[in-house]
Model the fold of this input.
Amino acid sequence: MSFWLILTLLSVLVASVATILQKVLMRGEKSDPYSYAVVFHLLMGLVALTFGLVGGTDFSLFQGNIWMLLLAAALWGTCQVFLFKALQLAEASEVTIVSGVRVLVTIFASVIFLNEVFTGWNVFGTVLILVSTVLIANRKKGFTFDKGLFYTLAMAFFGGLAIVADSANVQQYEVLAYSAFSNLLAGLFILAVYPKTFTQWKTFVNPSFLLKMLPVAVFSVTQGMLYLFAFTYGEHTAEIGTIRQASVIVTVLLAVIFLGERENLWKKCIAAMLVTVGVFFLS
Done:
């Protein structure tokens, strides 16, 4: 088995576990998504920084376009806030499936800003992803566009744009350096936009809170690095992007096993398969 394939499969499993851990942390209406997002990004940045220092990474801040770096940080910070808000109100499996819309945003943004080609198969994949989104929203009482779905779509929108920014930035920065910079700046961005979050500094330094957040940060950084490093082992972009979407199915299965999310299980399974196939045609 090729090493790039091993890295990609590991990133799928780690990403799914990270999503489940995020859902566990955000259970309950009283949890604050802004505080969690700030600590999440700052911890991710510190973890990436630690890995980079151990590995001898070049941490030159101005080796790339600083404005694109700031844009990516702002997009990821906004994306993460919406993700945590979505996980407060919706099931982890639903959030994961609907977040497939992020691929559509990435494709359209790539066509507009990077002059990439949008083929007939891409259109077919787009339709499949949209159908999966409608299937998840169409519950027992009919189509429901609630806050959980809105926050998930908003997360997908900003996340899709952030991926396009990443694709440009990672060509100029080393992977670990870029991960550290973007996450630390994303945390600071959230603090700047929502200064009231800083009043909860006691929560940020609470050992029990940090211990709960640390595993999520470690898993999230690890899956990101595995995914990015897989690209360094040859031209397998389409294959890696396609295989990564298996995280949708893995997350649905993990949510059923560990979180008991069995409501509308058949719809979730069909939607998970549709979004995975849809992204295959978009890859």
Observations:
- The chain has one domain: 3-282.
- The longest strand covers residues 138-139.
- The chain is about 75% helix and 0% strand.
- The CA atoms of residues 36 and 185 lie 15 Å apart.
